[in-house]
Amino acid sequence: MKFFGSIDKRGSRYRARVTQQGQRISRSFDTEEAATQWLNQLAKAARTNRFDAALRGATITVGELLDVFIEQKTEEWKPNTRRTTTSKIRSLQAQHPDLLGIPADSFCTSHIAEMVNRLRKAHPPAAAATIKQNVGFIRTAYNLANARLGLNLDNPVKPGCLPKVNNARDRRLLPNEEEKLLEACAKYETDTRCTTPIGLIVRFALETAMRQAEIAQLRWQDIYKDPQLGVTFVTVDRKFSKNNDARKFPLSYNLAQEITSLRSESAEEGSRVFGSNAPQIRQAFERSAARAKLEGFRFHDLRHEATSRLFERHHLEPHEAQLITGHRTIAMLNRYTHLNAQHLLGKMRNVLPPAS
């Protein structure tokens, strides 16, 4: 199989041209060395019968790899993940059309460094976690293209390209802040005639350690009262769980009573328990927290607070708390704890109805 390659100097740049079985492609480079290296890569691919894959890698751009990433993965993502991830990738493509317009086989570590530098100098500057996520999109796009399109691209994201992220939060409710927050929630509901029961949602989050999205997706079919135990259980559907794992745990008696009192006679099993989506919950919480003058306290901090209380107030073991929070920090332990929802009853005494 004959391979024809040549290099011509055009002005200050070098143009490399390749012809293989009637297929032609050319590329311009700043140096003759870079042009020669590119020709050598294609020649090697031709000798190993991988020219078609090399040619595809030489013509497809990084931005187009990201398009393939979305197309290939979109059906595997949950609806919320699909929307947010697609939006983030489209934003990345819009911010860096020049860099992402570079052919995939020519995109290298220096281009990654340039993109990272731009993100850091943006107004406002991108957080380390955002930069890491954007670079991660490119890394995954290359891996996916090699695996599913049969390309043989060198991944430009090398060790050290990803910035270190130190965004761990340790914000907890200070003395009297819970009371102030709940008072502000009640006043917000009254003053604005808000249909989101944000006060109840906050108390629910503080007991269950559920994520905001999980709370928003909670349906009446996920609330179940065991007639023998007289205990109300909450089930987090795996479709709406961040980790794709279902979990089940008991509610305290008083909170269970309040939750079930929300349900109207006409409410269907598949309708939302709190009647609000995630943006509505977020808005109601942020405005209530602002009224309470809580500095730097986010809705997700309720999950941190709730998790800490499982140990401090209920004295749960780590694997028992994990059943409630859904964290994966204890490797593979969930495989051996299917019956622990019942075991939790012995420690969480407040789930039982009061003695008559």
UniProtKB/TrEMBL annotation:
PANTHER family: INTEGRASE_RECOMBINASE HI_1414-RELATED (PTHR30349:SF94), PHAGE INTEGRASE-RELATED (PTHR30349). Residues 60-146 form the Core-binding (CB) domain. The keyword RNA-binding does not apply. Residues 168-349 form the Tyr recombinase domain. Pfam families: Phage_integrase. Keywords: DNA integration, DNA recombination, DNA-binding. This is Tyrosine-type recombinase/integrase. InterPro entries: CB, DNA_brk_join_enz, Integrase-like_cat_sf, Integrase_catalytic, Integrase_recombinase_N, Tyrosine_recombinase_XerCD. One of its GO terms (molecular function) is DNA binding. GO terms for biological process: DNA integration; DNA recombination.
